[in-house]
Amino acid sequence: MIVCFDIGGTAIKGALAMSPEDIRPFPRKPTPIHDFDAFVATLASVIAEAESLAGGRPACIAISIAGVIDPDTANAVVANIPCIHGRPLQADLATALGLPVIIANDADCFVLAEAGIGAARGHRVVFGVILGTGVGGGLVIDGKLINESGFAGEWGHGPIQPTEAGTPPIHVPRFQCGCGQIGCIDAICSARGLEKLHRHIHAKQLTSEEIITNWQAGDAKAERTIDVYVDILADPLSVVVNVTGTTILPVGGGLSNVPELLARIDTALRKRILRKFKSPIVVQAACGVEPGLIGAAILGLDFASEHQGG
């Protein structure tokens, strides 16, 4: 057995994992964002609960976190949790907790969950897509996460946004992205990006929820925004499909909760890729509850199996 965590800036979710299908969550605990000792103590308290419940020591600790581990420095890049930002987190936690520690980005854990027990189960090559506060993703092949650099799967970043899109085409500005570049897909196809796009086209500020609601109700302005949005999104996503050879793209994040939008993206995408699929490949994620914990559990259980001979 292992102990897995899904750590965000507000809450730490912990669980005892016996298998990907047998994950036993504990109550959430507030994240101590400014005190590393308190942060470690919170994790240790969950581990102690797991040990009491399971009657033994876990093989390892697996963590899903909204950040990355810099492959060159081994330091964590987690801006919303200052007490771990810039630290060699894996080494520090392993020392403090006395157990092996595996850490993965939350998007990577999402795709591991979908490939393991979710909508992509049975597919060899799975590219998971996040469409929400940001645009992200991850790649799993034969059940293994492909992320040696710590940054693989980040298709939302890179200055590739077109300056014309839609039918008929209109000019689209290249927005500033939080990563420091201009013209990233993340800056225009995230939920906030959808709002910026609508404001540019119609000079009206609406929330992404309002835009989607208006579009579903047949509003012509919202339809125009979605037309441009999907046209922008489908191009880089088609490159992802052609390069990776994925046969399915499970989608998570807030915008994934709109089946009509996923169907629209799927239709546009399948017209632009080399391999022709008769059935949809852009699908709603199945692990809607705790994908971070599930993905971390899969990662940790694989590690335990490899290092303990099963």
Automatic annotation (TrEMBL):
Keywords: Kinase, Transferase. Its EC number is 2.7.1.59. CDD domains: ASKHA_NBD_ROK_NAGK (cd24057). It comes from the Bacteria. GO terms for molecular function: N-acetylglucosamine kinase activity. InterPro entries: ATPase_NBD, ROK. It is an enzyme of class 2 (transferase). SUPFAM superfamilies: Actin-like ATPase domain. The keyword Transferase applies. Belongs to the ROK (NagC/XylR) family. This is N-acetylglucosamine kinase. It comes from Rhizobium rosettiformans.
